[in-house]
Specification:
The chain is an alpha/beta fold. Helices cover 38% and strands 22% of the residues. Strands 6-7-8-3-9-10 form a six-stranded mixed β-sheet, with helices on both faces. Strands 2-1-4-5 form a four-stranded antiparallel β-sheet, covered by helices on one side.
Length: 270
């Protein structure tokens, strides 16, 4: 579904943001991009949306080269919620914000209204239906941008730092939404520093450093590689650190705290 072929991107000031990145994301995969600030994560996803074009190399989305495909056409397939929601919100009301994309993609008036109501209820924003997006908190704005994207049902959903400004309840709901998207065959790409949020989701992890991919694999394997994580300045999940410190432990790290508690208390049931 998404393929980067030896992609290098150099900014106009001469800074190389991506350096020979090759990466393939299959349809239905959930992938998390991790790494320190400046590693190239957001630059990479902007190439997938067509907002940036590679200096060298190619980016293919559903077989189409982003260099010769309009951003508008790509946006029907790829929905992205960027780190700063203020860069995406512009309508006079929350309701109109959600309806804009749906109308732009040709949805019927009845379906537009149904999708708007669905999104506002799902993300706890119904009370703000007639309010300006400007009155929302940072966390509420991020939920609104995600609601807008999911309403038009793109095949690829990209979330850039989705947990910033979210409390534990909203993080749990967001994790549930990501798992639901995965179960329906959507391709999900999450850019995040929040390793504790990512760990229970168990995505494929892509570790980036200085514009390069330095690690790629299942969360259960990569999150145990302390040397790799240290080199990329990625924090290891607490449950993995706890697991590795046990004198006697199961074959795989604990995904949930309850599993760790049962093990410590002597309950070895699977």
């Amino acid at each position: 579904m998404i393929e980067l072929q030896d992609v290098t991107f150099v900014h106009q000031n001469g800074v190389k943001a991506l350096d020979g990145v090759s990466l393939k994301v299959e349809t239905g995969e959930t992938v998390a991009l991790v790494g320190e600030n400046g590693a190239g994560k957001t630059t990479l996803v902007k190439h997938v949306t067509g907002l940036l074009k590679p200096t060298t190399g190619r980016v293919l989305v559903d077989g189409e080269d982003t260099r010769s495909t309009s951003t508008a056409k790509l946006s029907r397939k790829v929905g992205v919620a960027f780190q700063n929601p203020d860069h995406q919100l512009f309508s006079e009301s929350v309701e109109e914000e959600m309806a804009f994309g749906l109308r732009n993609f040709g949805f019927s008036p009845e379906l537009v209204q149904n999708r708007v109501t669905w999104g506002l209820e799902l993300f706890g924003l119904e009370e703000y239906r007639k309010s300006s997006p400007l009155v929302l908190s940072g966390g509420e704005k991020k939920r609104l941008t995600l609601a807008c994207i999911l309403a038009w049902d793109p095949q690829v959903v990209i979330l850039d730092e989705p947990t910033v400004g979210q409390d534990s309840i909203q993080k749990e709901k967001l994790a549930g939404t990501i798992k639901l998207l995965r179960s329906t065959g959507k391709t999900v790409v999450v850019v995040s520093h929040d390793i504790e949020f990512l760990w229970p989701i168990q995505p494929r992890i892509v570790v980036m450093k200085a514009g390069r991919v330095v690690g790629d694999g299942p969360a259960g394997r990569l999150m145990q590689d302390g040397a790799l994580l240290d080199s990329a300045r990625v924090v290891q999940p607490q449950l993995v650190s706890f697991y590795q410190g046990l004198p006697s432990r199961p074959a795989q790290p604990f995904i949930y705290a309850l599993e760790a508690r049962r093990w410590v208390e002597g309950d070895r049931r699977p």
